[in-house]
Amino acid sequence: MKTNGSGPVRVVLADDHDLVRSGIKALLGMIDGVEVIAEARDGQELIRLVDSLKPDIVMTDISMPHMDGIAAIAEIRMRQPQVRMLVLSMYDTVDFVKRAVASGACGYLMKDAPPFELEQSIRSVMATGTYFSPVIAQRLLQPSEPSASDELTDRQLEILKLIAQGKASKEIAFDLGLSPKTVDVHRARIMERLKLNDIASLTRYAVRKGLVKP
Fold first, then answer.
1. Distance of CA 183 to CAs 10, 13, 152, 155, 193, Å?
2. Is the whole model's pTM more than 0.85, yes or no?
3. What distances in angstroms separate CA 18 from CA 14, 15, 23, 27, one per listed residue?
4. Which of helix, strand or coil describes residue 187?
5. Cα(106)–Cα(98) distance, rounded to whole angstroms?
6. Could you give the maximum distance between any two Cα atoms of the chain, in Å?
7. What are the GO BP annotations of this UniProt entry (predicted)?
8. What is the arithmetic mean of pLDDT over 172-183?
9. Measured distance CA(60)–CA(38) in Å, rounded
10. What is the set of domains in the chain, with CATH numbers?
């Protein structure tokens, strides 16, 4: 597939779900001229592998432990600018797409895309330098929503993540070294700022913004 005929396109794949990663690897393995040379479970491991192996393409999820995909993309762009980076994600909001592109991603496709789109994305990125699936291209035409950090303080984001993980005020207070009453005050202010009235709505907001996994 490489235009210079120097061998297969070498891909490093990153996703924290082993089953998902194995499935994507199997699909990539069916594409002529593509070789998955390494796999990572988080952004830190991905950076180490890219530094060591210098692949042609990184294909990464966004939501991963320790360091997320967007932070890893920004770091790789700085350290290995020749590597082309594709996001393969379940998040399709314009905010996520634009953040990924601003960090250095040259392509973005959804995890529920048809299998042929994997090959299409790799061929397009190698040939033209970019690939955005039709769904994502449409999203890019939409105005950006405010990010969670635009709407909430760092402390409120911290508390919201724990609320969305199902933790009660006492647990959150213990984790953050606060009193339960202080946590309750923060929660009330979060609801007021976001104009949301219950925990279920807060959880949906946190998932939509990528603060927690569904």
1. 48, 39, 14, 10, 15
2. no
3. 10, 7, 9, 14
4. helix
5. 11
6. 65
7. phosphorelay signal transduction system; regulation of DNA-templated transcription
8. 94
9. 12
10. 9-140 (3.40.50.2300), 148-208 (1.10.10.10)
Q: What is the pLDDT of residues 33-46, one digit of tens each?
A: 999 999 999 999 99
Residue 30 burial class via C-beta count within 10 angstroms: exposed 0-12, middle 13-18, buried 19 and up: exposed
Query: Taking a C-beta distance cutoff of 8 angstroms, is the pair 85, 104 a contact?
Result: yes
Q: What is the pLDDT of residues 61-78, one digit of tens each?
A: 998 888 889 999 999 999
Q: How is the beta sheet containing 34-40 ordered, strand by strand? A: 34-40, 9-14, 57-60, 84-89, 107-110, 131-132
User: Where do runs of H (alpha helix) occur along 87-211?
Assistant: 94-103, 116-128, 134-140, 148-151, 154-164, 169-176, 180-194, 199-208
Do the Cβ atoms of 61 and 88 come closer than 8 Å?
yes
Q: Is the confidence at residue 8, as pLDDT, over 80? A: yes
Residues 160, 211 contacting (CB under 8 angstroms): yes
- CA–CA gap between residue 73 and residue 105 (Å, rounded): 7
Distance, first Cα to last Cα, the chain: 36
